[in-house]
Amino acid sequence: MAIQDDRQEFEASKVSNSLALGRDDALMSQSIQLALNLEKYNYPYLWSWMGVPIIQLPADVMATQEVIWATQPDVIIETGVARGGSLIFMASILASIGNETSKVIGVDIDIRAHNRESIEAHPLARKIELIQGPSTDQDVLDKIRASIPAGSRVMVVLDSDHSYSHVLRECIAYGELVTPGCYLVVADTLVGMLPDDSSINRSRKWTKGDDPLSALRTYMEQNDLFERDDVLNGKLIMSSSPGGYLRRKQA
After folding, report:
1. What's the whole-model pTM score?
2. Which residue, among 192, 190, 186, has the nearest Cα to 208 in the 3D structure?
3. pLDDT, tens digit, 9 for 90 and up, residues 162-196
């Protein structure tokens, strides 16, 4: 007896459940509280990718992987290098796609020597380019533009200084680099959902009010370049970046 092909129904169920989950405010509140409870263990710092600390929650790693696989960018720009695990993670997904010329550009105001060493000694170093300097300085932006081959599909991840003013400047500077159909990911939007007396630690303490989510909302009000991916954001429970995945609209 033939087995029914249920792939379409399976995918439709995923979409339906993701959208429903995104509307479950009570469960999101529980998720935020769990994230706060895990802060005393530095939970995001417990993970690594291919031997290098990634400083990401597993849900965000999975979501980013889904985006890269679905959109197949040629260039991914990430502001905020930290220890380099996120760069290596994204480079590994690009490598698995098979585009030999694809690369990840990591931008940071301070790429420390030991972190640079870990990145440059890694087997995937060939797919990573490092640019040191303030992410919104014109010289840095000019270097980034010069590193993007003509006709490339470009994705951007903003994960550096999480203050409102800095994230908004990054959104304005880097949003225009994202190509239609690709994604702008604003990291640590969870900060904007915290109770007023709470904070999370990402190299320093970040609190609600001066946060990436507020900057993202302002940016979305200022232009019509992006749309929120409600399916992907809907399933981001136990995530640092719920609501932070934006898709560039088609021209």
Report:
1. 0.95
2. 192
3. 999 999 999 999 999 999 999 999 999 999 998 88
